[in-house]
Each structure stands twice: as structure tokens, then as C-alpha cells.
């Protein structure tokens, strides 16, 4: 190893000096992998979305036909509705429940730490495992786990996953179960940052608990909440594994979301062009949403 | 109770050198410690909290007991799922073994081990360049890595499966090999971002002193920077493992036939097998669950820190 003495002012100009090459050597593996397995597929997806992809026959340029086909397909249109209902319901439910959990489990006691550890389990469990677990908990006969619980209250066996009117809500319940503990951790980090003396001051002013939550706690955890909301919104749009494992889009397409539809189109029906167009639409919406939310956040931070 | 536990006070982003000045002195009574003003003394509020905690445990943790008990129950079916095993047996595991669950499991371990190693190396190298060097195009590279977070497997699944079948330039077919899953996991924007933020906080004086001693780039990274980054590496490792173990679509599209599946994907193979009951599926679920559970319980603090840090850094 030779000594490389750094003098801040010494810039190599346009020549390739050792100093200017070194960072790129360190970046090379990461950039290469990102290029080959992220950006190239993305570019290829955009490219293919304008073609009628025919293996062995050669692809044929068909312009925007894939897009019009996908966007006018009624199953995709239904999937948009399901994706929005699932995404919004799941996000809001998980944030609300996460907030309640954070308020409930905030504290230093040993027993509380134990409860927190146990409650967080769903968030670290692989989604596929959670899906299998919930399929069994939703077992449709009266001695299924949840149904036997309902039985105690005299409620009949519910066809959670086989009833087209109910399957989407059952999927949403599982999503809330997965993400509420995750949100709890983020919100709890926000709660830990609240100035304790504010609570004391509020108590001296004789402020009610509701006002204390409204005017002291909520403003303090607003950044945490906005992050949770952003993450949830983006996640909600591209939801795939939960639905695919739990219902596979059924029954009768009642839980079909955008990505399960694109997956079926691409891998089962081999319509690569149409599936690519669907993915590009999703990508654009995701990027748009991210940029918008980030702008809002920046504006909010400036005050 | 010696289980490691989520500690909300430590859930701020890990920072080297800047420790919190002294120990926060308790100046206020306990009832000002929490947003809801929970009291330690037994009473109506205390009883209510106990009840709510019990409900939370029942909702979020009890289903895991159901997995365990079902996996050890003879002839378990979805309809007889309960919290305590009856007629306990290891039969489910041996049937799952016959269906190749251990092969799937070893696929998963190879992918998780190799993928995590690759991810940590690649992300550390990139973060070192981004944090400790100044060069033309730095902001652009940072944006690129940020973009990889916007490109999850789901969105690029269809073209990615084509790329895996025929990698550009070198024309390799990665499908059916573990590389088809490992390589796409290598560049993870989150790890790069987090490690970069962390490495930026290492004081320049340490680096300058080392350079005067004639320390080169690789030794600088290995002997000076990395030892100071241990907490961040821990976070990247735990979150990376959980993220890789959670992969579903990627192993699915990278597989050539079902023997290439990871254990999480293989669960649905077990489920659709008409000859095995739910007990066997649950045995598979236990096997798929254990590694992430162990990692979580051992390295919980890093995990929680990471989630909170990822949240505050965006």
C-alpha cells in the first residue's frame, strides 16, 4: 500500500488520476449489480411495453396498444379499485392500530418490553408464512380458529376467503396485522422524542388527556407519522405477496390487485407486452406518488 | 425474563462519537413518562392496561403458538387448530422431510447467507466511496441508489425474469441457480444510504491521521472505518437478512422448476399437495419461521434501531 496524502485543493482536473478513479472502483460492484438487475430490466420493461412480444417470431412494434388494452381491460379496472381499497384501508388501519399499540406499550417496565417483543413478531415473519398461517386461521368451518372464537358469541361460521364480498376485507385484516407492529416501532421512536417536561407542564395547566394527545403528542410524532404514511402508500400500491399467498386473487377475482393481475398476464398467459405495460403504469404512479409526498414533506419541514 | 426487548429510548439513529451527554436524569414522576400518563400503581387504569396488553398478545403473538402446536399435532387440520398440541408427534416434520422441505430449507440458507454476504460487501464498498470521497457525479450516484429502492422486485418482475434467463452482454442463464436470487439482492439502496450516513459521521481527523501513517484505501476501510461502523453493519445485516428471507416473487421467477424454490415459496407447494394435511404445512411454516425468529430475538436491538433510523432518514 502506497501513501496517498490528501490535499484538499489538489484536484486532478479532467485527467484520470489515482484519486479520481478510486471511488469508482469501490462503487463498481454496486453500480454494476444495480444496472444489470434493476435499471436494465426497467428499461427493458419500458421497451417491451410498446411491442407485441412473440417468442421465436420476433417482436412487433404496436405503439401504445398494450397500454390501451390494459387500461380498458375490465379486470384491470377492477384491480385498480381493489388495490386502492386494500392499500388505503390497510395503511390507515395499520397506522391507527400501530398508534394505539405504541401508546399502550410505551414505557420502561420489563413486562412491557416482553409484550413489545411478542407483538412485533408478525413484522419479522416472512409474508408467505403469515399467509399460510392466516389461511388456516380463516378456516371456513365452525371449528376453525377464528370461527370457533366467533362461535363463542353465537356467530355462525364465516367464509372469510370464499365469500367474494368478504375476501378483500379478510386480506386487509391480515395486512393490518402484519404492518401495525412495524408502524408501532416507528411511532414509538417518535414518542420517545417527546419532551417529558411538556407532559408535566400540560398536567400543571390542567389539560385533559385528549388535549394532551392532540396538542403535545401528535405534533411531536408528526414526522414519524408522515414517514409511516409514505412507506405504507408505496407498499400498498405494489402489494403482491400477501394477496398471492392468501387468496391468489380469488374468489372470482374479488381480491385481484394490480400486481397479481400483471403477474397472471405475464407468467400464466405469456402476454409479456401487456404485463410490461401494466408494470410501467404502476412504476409511473409509484414514482409520481413518491415525488409528490417528498415535496410535501420538504415543504412541511421548512415551516 | 432475560429476553432482549424493544427499547424505545434507543431507537434513534445510531451515531458514532456523538453519545448522548450523560445519562438522562429522571426529573419527573413516572406518570409523565408516557403519552397516556400510565401509572405504575394498581388501579382501574392499570387493570385496563393489563387487559389491553393481554388482548394485544392474543391477537399478535398467539397465532404463532397455534403454528407451533399444529406442527406437533397428529392429524392436524385447519379445523382443529388450537393453542396447545394434543396427541403430540414429530410425524409432520418427517412427512415434510419426505416432501423435500430440508432441500428447500438449504436453498433458503444458501441464498440468505450468500445474498447477505454479497449485499453487505457491495453496500459497504459503495457507502465508503460515497461517504469518504468527493468525486464528480456523487449526487447522481446517490440518486441512482435511491432509485433502486423505488424499483422493488414486484414492479420489474416480468422483465427481470427475462434478464435472469439471459443476462445482457455475458448471455448467462441464471434461472435455476442460486445466483438468480442472490445477485439481484446485491445492491440494496437502503443499506447503501444507511451506511453512507453513518460513515459520514466518522471524524475526518481519524482518517487524516491514518493517511499520514500511510494507510491505503482498502486498509482504511477494513481497519479504520469498518470497526467504527459495527452498529450500522449490525443493522444492515439484520434488516438485510429479514428482507432476503421475506423474498417471495424473486425466488419464484428465478426458479426453473419447483426444486429450486426457497422454503417460504415451497410452503404453497406443500399446501396444494393433496396427500399432506395442514399439520405438515405448519411443520414447514415452523421451519421457515425459525431462522428469522432466531435472528430477531438475538439481534432485536439492531433491528428496531434500523427500522426507526430508516424511518427518520426516509
From TrEMBL, chain A:
The organism named in the record is Streptomyces lacrimifluminis
Q: What's any one GO cellular component for it?
A: plasma membrane
Which keywords does this Swiss-Prot/TrEMBL entry list? Cell membrane, Membrane, Transmembrane, Transmembrane helix, Transport
Question: Which domain of life does the UniProt lineage start with?
Answer: Bacteria
Query: What are the transmembrane regions?
Result: 21-40, 79-105, 117-137, 166-194, 215-234, 272-293
Q: Which GO terms describe its biological process?
A: transmembrane transport
The way this protein sits in the membrane is described as: Multi-pass membrane protein
What the record says about family reads: Belongs to the binding-protein-dependent transport system permease family.
Compartments in which it is found: Cell membrane
Show where the ABC transmembrane type-1 domain sits: 80-293
Its predominant location is membrane
Protein's name in the database: Sugar ABC transporter permease
UniProtKB/TrEMBL annotation, chain B:
Q: Which residues form the ABC transmembrane type-1 domain?
A: 105-299
Q: Record's Gene Ontology CC terms?
A: plasma membrane
**Which intervals carry biased composition (Basic residues)?**
17-27
Which PROSITE patterns does the UniProt entry name for this protein?
Answer: ABC_TM1 (PS50928)
- Could you tell me which InterPro entries the record lists for this protein? MetI-like, MetI-like_sf
Q: Which UniProt keywords apply?
A: Cell membrane, Membrane, Transmembrane, Transmembrane helix, Transport
Task: Show the Gene3D superfamilies listed in the entry.
Answer: MetI-like (1.10.3720.10)
Q: Which SUPFAM superfamilies match?
A: MetI-like
Q: What domain of life does the UniProt record list for this protein's source?
A: Bacteria
Region span, Disordered: 1-27
* The UniProt record lists the keyword Transport: yes
Q: How does it sit in the membrane?
A: Multi-pass membrane protein
Q: Which residues cross the membrane?
A: 50-72, 109-130, 142-164, 176-199, 220-245, 276-299
Which family does the entry's similarity section mention? Belongs to the binding-protein-dependent transport system permease family.
Tell me the protein's name: Sugar ABC transporter permease
Species, as recorded: Streptomyces lacrimifluminis
Amino acid at each position: 500500500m502506497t501513501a496517498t496524502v490528501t490535499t484538499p485543493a489538489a484536484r486532478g482536473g479532467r485527467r484520470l488520476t489515482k484519486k479520481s478513479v478510486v471511488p469508482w472502483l469501490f462503487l463498481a460492484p454496486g453500480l454494476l449489480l444495480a444496472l444489470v438487475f434493476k435499471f436494465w430490466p426497467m428499461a427493458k420493461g419500458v421497451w417491451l411495453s410498446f411491442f407485441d412480444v412473440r417468442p421465436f417470431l420476433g417482436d412487433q412494434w404496436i405503439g401504445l396498444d398494450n397500454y390501451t388494452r390494459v387500461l380498458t381491460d375490465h379486470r384491470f379496472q377492477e384491480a385498480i379499485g381493489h388495490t386502492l381499497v386494500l392499500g388505503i384501508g390497510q395503511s390507515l388501519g395499520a397506522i391507527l392500530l400501530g398508534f394505539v399499540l405504541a401508546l399502550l406499550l410505551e414505557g420502561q417496565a420489563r413486562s412491557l418490553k416482553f409484550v413489545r417483543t411478542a407483538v412485533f413478531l408478525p413484522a419479522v415473519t416472512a409474508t408467505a408464512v403469515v399467509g399460510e398461517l392466516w389461511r388456516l386461521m380463516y378456516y371456513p368451518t365452525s371449528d376453525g380458529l377464528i370461527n370457533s372464537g366467533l362461535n363463542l358469541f353465537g356467530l355462525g361460521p364465516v367464509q372469510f376467503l370464499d365469500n367474494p364480498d368478504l375476501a378483500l376485507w379478510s386480506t386487509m385484516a391480515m395486512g393490518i396485522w402484519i404492518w401495525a407492529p412495524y408502524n408501532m416501532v416507528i411511532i414509538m421512536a417518535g414518542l420517545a422524542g417527546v419532551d417529558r417536561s411538556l407532559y408535566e407542564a400540560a398536567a400543571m395547566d390542567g389539560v385533559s388527556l385528549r388535549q394532551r394527545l392532540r396538542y403535545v403528542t401528535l405534533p411531536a410524532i408528526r414526522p414519524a407519522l408522515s414517514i409511516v404514511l409514505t412507506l405504507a402508500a408505496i407498499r400498498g400500491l405494489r402489494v403482491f405477496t400477501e394477496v398471492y399467498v392468501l387468496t391468489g386473487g380469488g374468489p372470482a377475482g374479488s381480491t385481484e390487485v394490480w400486481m397479481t393481475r400483471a403477474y397472471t398476464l405475464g407468467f400464466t398467459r405469456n402476454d409479456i407486452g401487456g404485463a410490461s405495460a401494466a408494470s410501467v403504469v404502476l412504476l409511473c404512479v409509484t414514482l409520481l406518488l413518491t415525488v409528490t409526498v417528498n415535496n410535501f414533506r420538504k415543504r412541511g419541514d421548512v415551516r | 425474563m432475560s429476553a432482549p426487548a424493544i427499547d424505545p429510548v434507543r431507537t434513534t439513529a445510531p451515531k458514532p462519537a456523538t453519545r448522548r451527554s450523560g445519562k438522562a436524569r429522571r426529573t419527573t414522576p413516572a406518570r409523565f413518562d408516557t403519552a397516556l400518563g400510565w401509572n405504575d400503581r394498581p388501579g382501574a387504569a392499570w387493570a385496563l392496561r393489563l387487559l389491553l396488553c393481554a388482548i394485544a398478545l392474543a391477537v399478535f403473538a398467539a397465532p404463532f403458538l397455534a403454528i407451533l402446536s399444529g406442527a406437533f399435532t397428529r392429524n392436524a387440520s385447519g379445523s382443529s387448530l388450537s393453542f396447545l398440541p394434543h396427541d403430540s408427534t414429530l410425524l409432520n416434520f418427517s412427512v415434510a422431510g419426505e416432501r423435500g422441505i430440508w432441500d428447500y430449507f438449504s436453498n433458503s440458507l444458501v441464498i440468505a447467507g450468500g445474498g447477505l454476504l454479497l449485499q453487505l460487501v457491495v453496500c459497504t464498498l459503495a457507502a465508503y466511496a460515497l461517504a469518504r470521497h468527493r468525486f464528480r457525479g456523487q449526487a447522481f450516484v446517490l440518486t441512482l441508489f435511491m432509485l433502486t429502492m423505488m424499483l422493488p422486485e414486484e414492479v420489474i418482475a416480468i422483465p427481470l425474469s427475462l434478464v435472469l434467463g439471459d443476462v445482457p452482454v455475458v448471455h448467462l442463464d441464471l434461472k435455476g441457480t442460486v445466483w438468480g436470487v442472490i445477485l439481484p439482492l446485491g445492491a440494496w439502496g437502503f443499506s447503501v444510504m444507511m451506511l453512507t450516513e453513518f460513515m459520514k459521521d466518522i471524524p475526518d481527523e481519524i482518517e487524516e491521521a491514518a493517511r499520514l501513517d500511510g494507510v491505503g484505501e482498502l486498509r482504511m476501510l477494513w481497519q479504520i472505518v469498518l470497526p467504527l461502523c459495527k452498529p450500522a453493519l449490525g443493522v444492515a445485516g439484520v434488516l438485510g437478512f429479514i428482507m432476503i428471507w421475506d423474498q417471495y416473487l424473486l425466488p419464484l421467477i428465478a426458479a426453473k422448476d419447483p426444486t429450486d424454490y426457497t422454503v417460504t415459496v415451497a410452503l404453497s407447494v406443500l399446501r396444494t399437495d393433496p396427500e399432506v394435511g395442514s399439520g405438515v404445512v405448519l411443520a414447514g411454516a415452523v421451519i421457515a419461521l425459525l431462522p428469522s425468529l432466531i435472528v430477531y430475538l438475538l439481534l432485536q436491538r439492531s433491528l428496531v434501531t434500523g427500522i426507526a433510523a430508516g424511518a427518520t432518514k426516509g
